[in-house]
């Protein structure tokens, strides 16, 4: 994970909110629920979901290279009691050159 830099006019960020309490769920929300049920081995029915997409985002600092971009999403969802976050990357994974990052003491994981 690193900072994206949109200062050079490369890349886009957009979001979509899904309010699904007492309404029909779109296929995207059904897919999110299925992933949570599968990986967390729990029953889950979303009442709210937010999808944020960073498309063709260059790494910080973009002034050095705007050719290496990433497209990724964060999906936040809750059933009103539990909340989950899914991080999704384009096929091929993270494409930024991590050897050029300003910080070398990076910790990757979850808690």
TrEMBL record:
The UniProt GO MF terms for this protein read: ErbB-2 class receptor binding
| Entry superkingdom | Eukaryota
Q: Which GO terms describe its biological process?
A: cell-matrix adhesion
- One Pfam family named in its UniProt record: NIDO
Domain named NIDO: which ranges? 1-111
- Which UniProt keywords are listed? Disulfide bond
PANTHER family given for it?
MUCIN 4-RELATED, MUCIN-4
Under which name does UniProt file this protein? MUC4 protein
| Lineage of the species this protein comes from | Eukaryota, Metazoa, Chordata, Craniata, Vertebrata
